[in-house]
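new request in #modeling-help
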Amino acid sequence: MSFAACKSNIKPETPSKGDANFSVYVAIGNSLTAGFADGTLYRSGQVNSYPNMLAQQFQLVGGGEFKQPLLPGESGWPIALAAGFYPKRVLGYSTDCLGTTSLGPVLYSGSWADTAGSGTNIAAGGPYNNLGIPGIKCIHYGVTGYGMLNPYAARFYSNPSGQSPMDVALAQPATFYSVWLGSNDVLAYATSGGEGVVGGTGANDISPVAAFKAIYDGLIDKLMAKGAGGVLINVPDVTSVPYFTTINPKGLNLSAAQAQGLNAAYAQLGLPITFTEGANYFVIADPAAPGGVRKMLSGEYVLLTTPGDSLKCGGWGSMKPIPTRYVLTLKEITNIKEATDAFNRIIADNAAKYNLALMDANTYLKTLSTGITWDGVTYSPAFVTGGAFSLDGVHLTPRGYALVANEVLRVINARYHATIPAVEINKYSGIKFP
Amino acid sequence: MKKICLFTASAIAVSSMAFAGSFQLNLQGIRQTAMGGSGVAMPWDASAIFFNPGGLARLDGIQAYASVNLVNPGVRYVQAPTGGYTYETNSHTSTPFAVYVGGRVSKDSKLAVGLGIYTPFGSSAHWDDNWVGRYITQTISLQSIFFQPTVSYRINDFVSVGAGFVYAIGSVDITKAIPLMDMQGNEGQAKLKGNANGIGFNLGVQLKATDKLNFGISYRSKVKMDVNSGDATFTVPKSAAGNFPAGLATDFKSKLPLPEILTVGASYKATRDLTIQADVVFAGWKTYDSLSFDFAENTAALKDTHDPRSYKNTVAFRLGGHYQIGQFAVMAGGAYDPTPTRDNLLSPDAVDANRITLSCGASYQPIPKLSIMAVLNYTTTAKRDVTYDPANFKGAYQIKSLLPGLGISYNF
């Protein structure tokens, strides 16, 4: 009996590509596809994008090289504080108006020198396989010259002023596509507190369903014209992310005296708003309410970006209404849900029409709320502690993206009779704690 | 900062890598190990104290016996159903041993007494610190030592009986990663260390039906090993320390039931020099229903744990032969040990599968009072595709081990 016989040498079962061809994989999408996290785009976030994870798994079954338009630095890009472009968020300590120091997202305070050269056009290094553009909406896909409007596109489109995103997508002879488009067609409305209109094309509007359908149908039709395969990923319920669910709308805690004082003040104004000792719903601005002010209702959201000091010390939500841009009302939530459902029907129709795999991100991310356990770790949608969402409360951590990648692989395997193995999620990081 | 759910998966488990189904070690006698672990019917030497205390009264004189085995099991994990990665346990040798002293109280007495000190259960598995299953287990080491004072009585030429009391001590030493990462990417870790003890007994009847044919039956009771005051310590990023017990340390309690075991067997002296024997072993693993850890101080991040195990009872078969050649003897045997574990509850800290064992050994008697014995035991499993549902951890495993052992006995 040789000594070697007492060491196991079992090997994993060999994966199969099934009916699909992954030799040229192109990922189409927005910030989620680009690897956006912690409020910005930075190099390691791109490296940990779900398309890059998918590409590594595809390489086990004959997939080819996967090029990403990588930024040079880790600070985040672009950074222009005056214009509202900040470096990435990291976990750190900050002291609020009450003098309480607590752990939470703070702006990265290191040098931004590593962002030098981020804006340089790198199209010569392409063509790139990851075409995710932060901020892009589905309805932008047909806009010629889109690269002039979005610095992330301008970086790697070969002709930013003369191409539409669709032109860029079609320039490559892809054999397999992933398409995760449509989130921004509702998300921008949601993150602006419903400041836009329904059926508009402005930055904070919910895109018109007809325009969405025309562009989406046209895109998938053209992508599939050459016999490629693919997976379509639908629009998540944007209101299930920590950006909307972290601040409790019933977060106004009052003593009996405080409640009495507020009651007297609102009575003097002749407004039908009353408070009781204990937890109360915040007061918000609502042009439709008497006097333009009302208390929040169950099911409404306060946005994560609401200034904490204004809530704690500035009288927001009690003496003063929280401005509408920090609140999603039931009506706005209904608008978001109706649009999301309409967009997802269009996506599902395309998946059915072209017999493509469909990843139901809407349902999958909802299952996070009861916890998703993978290789010994349980993820939840809780902000910071849940492990899946990054510090901007909308985008994912590398582990969160890996969960998405594995769900995408599951539906690809089912549709294409493939046996591509799951991503080793524990290789990636979650939130980092000081 | 709210609750950080860390211990949803098993905190601690105490098994694995054994050689007779789960964490039972079947290495209490060199000759018996060489014969596939069989030996309830025949009092080969003072190791009868373990195998069948009824046989002790049949030994001539007083015997002192000592043996040691080198255990270095190898477990390999592969991603399943298909995969791109594999992991292996690191080499880590343990040395289960047995010491027996006993025999008839006087030359013509029917009464014999003895003491056995042996290690019937134990395991260790040292996975890599950064392996994919690190939040379930990084390293685990379980040791137990049984002290068994024993009396044995030869009722007549045909029947002898015996009984022993068992006092067991043990230790558990576990590390696992905590999914909390610091700014440099280092993860947290939990360490659990504790001592355990328990009591039990064993009984045996040995029947010498004819000069050629022996029967034996032995019963070893369940021993509930209690960890009453283990030490749990935690390493986590500074900002998360407030979610853990003060000083990042607390006590814990746990229980590990070692199952009752009933063995029935026969031996047959086919020729003057050749004896063959076979045992059937019933193990009451069903008692191992779950593994729980009760921490003295619970916090947002540290809850008590309760992990299902739902072991099944097992019946194992062992067969062996012993051939005498003058001062020498050679032995060979084999065993089949079905696993008590379930396909959906197999934790990587307690990898197990149906085991096939092949064994051989030899003994040499340079002078009539002295025997020197050696054994080589080879155990393997088929590749087993399983999940550990509480942690949603899937994979396929194979166990292989080659373990040598040496022993010596002296008759006074």
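bot summary: Chain B has one domain: 2-405.
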